[in-house]
Amino acid sequence: MANSRAGNLKTENSFPQGRLFQITDREFSAFRDLILREAGISLSEGKRQLLCSRLAKRLRHFGFHTFSQYYDYLLTQDPKHEERLRMINCMTTNKTDFFRESHHFNFLSQHMIPQIRQRAFCGGVRKIRVWSAGCSSGEEPYSIAMTVREALGSLLGWDVKILASDIDTEMIRNGSDGIYAAERLSGVPYELKRKHFLRGKGECEGYLQVHPELRDLVVFRRINLMDEPWPIHTYFDAIFCRNVVIYFNRETQEKLFERLATYLSEEGYLFVGHSENLSWLSHLFAPLRGTIYRRRKPG
Ligand SMILES: C[S@@+](CC[C@H](N)C(=O)[O-])C[C@H]1O[C@@H](n2cnc3c(N)ncnc32)[C@H](O)[C@@H]1O
Predict the structure, then answer these.
(1) CATH of domain 25-91
(2) Which residue of 97, 192, 240, 283 lies most exposed, with the fewest beta carbons within 10 A?
(3) Each residue of 61-98: pLDDT tens digit?
(4) How far apart are CA 78 and CA 3, in angstroms?
(5) SS3 category, 116
């Protein structure tokens, strides 16, 4: 088992190796524009220190003394945008948890899955598609997978796929590995852990790995929600886009939700984060309860 820093937190307001970098107004503005363009992440003036601390390790890596040197490198010496990916990885906030906002998972098992089962019973397809858009290190899509698996009882005859996507390549790698420190699963019921995780032995003691059967239900892909078009050719029964758009400005949020709406099936549900309210997008989504929405019929 490889070591994973799943559920990681990036160092904020700290300078691990002691080196302080100053950023000028011009440099901050250039990075802000680049990050907004690339990732949709909108940094307020108050995030100046955060940007400095998050990118300090990249400057140290190259031996640069100023943010301008790093910016020039990104623009002129990085034709394949490999460093740009690393820069964006540094700027994302990946806080997540298993069964975060548990009422969403209760809704899946008590309402959505029974509805899909009922439709299948009446001649519909035995197929379930869920998208975890902004999945971080995988806790969210695996929580969805466990919920669907448990609610269906048996997967026999069912075609279930959960798309787990994030802009951060490191998170996609962590999610694909599916290895978590045991304390990350402290809130997961014992029975689910026993069924869906393998316990690490020897040097992997203290880690749990997602069982291959559950792992197979989840497809991890790097997808930048700002990219057009998305490499997706299906409609979803549910889209989880939780705690992602809090970093986007209104214009970016509106465009994103307009696009997400077109990827929901007619009966599809949208789940957003606890602090996200879509009442201003009532032409697209009808509120169902709390932070669960239903797509409105177009036209
Ligand atoms: C705070 S985490 C939320 C994780 C999970 N959805 C949850 O609620 O627990 C936000 C995630 O959104 C991702 N993200 C930010 N901008 C993105 C973009 N433009 N495209 C795709 N993912 C993005 C980040 O990398 C991060 O992993």
Answers:
(1) 1.10.155.10
(2) 283
(3) 999 999 999 999 999 999 999 999 999 999 999 999 99
(4) 29
(5) helix
Which pTM value belongs to this model? Answer: 0.94
> How many CA atoms lie less than 13 Å away from 193 in the CB half-sphere?
17
54 is catalytic: yes
> How many angstroms is it from 94 CA to the middle of ligand 1?
6
Q: Check pocket membership of 8 for ligand 1, CB cut-off 6 A.
A: no
- Closest protein CA for atom 19 of ligand 1: 39
**Distance between CA atoms of 99 and 106, rounded to whole angstroms?**
10
Residues in the chain predicted with pLDDT less than 70, given as ranges, are 1-19, 299
Residue 240's nearest CA partner among 133, 149, 137 is: 133
- Rounded Cα–Cα distance for residues 211 and 13 (Å): 37
How high is the mean pLDDT of the chain?
Answer: 94
Give phi and psi for 159, each to the nearest 5: -110, 100
**pLDDT exceeding 90 applies to what percent of the chain?**
92
Amino acid identity, residue 92?
T
Q: Does residue 226 line the site of ligand 1, with CB under 6 A?
A: yes
- 262 CB burial (10 A radius; 0-12, 13-18, 19+): exposed
Domain boundaries, the chain: 25-91, 102-295
- Nearest residue (by CA) to ligand 1, atom 3, is 243
Q: Is CATH 3.40.50.150 the classification given to domain 102-295?
A: yes
169 within ligand 1 shell (Cβ under 6 A): no
Residue-level pLDDT at 19: 63
Which member of 58, 86, 166, 184 is catalytic? Answer: 166
How much distance in Å is there from the Cα of 15 to the middle of ligand 1?
24
Report pLDDT for 20.
Answer: 77
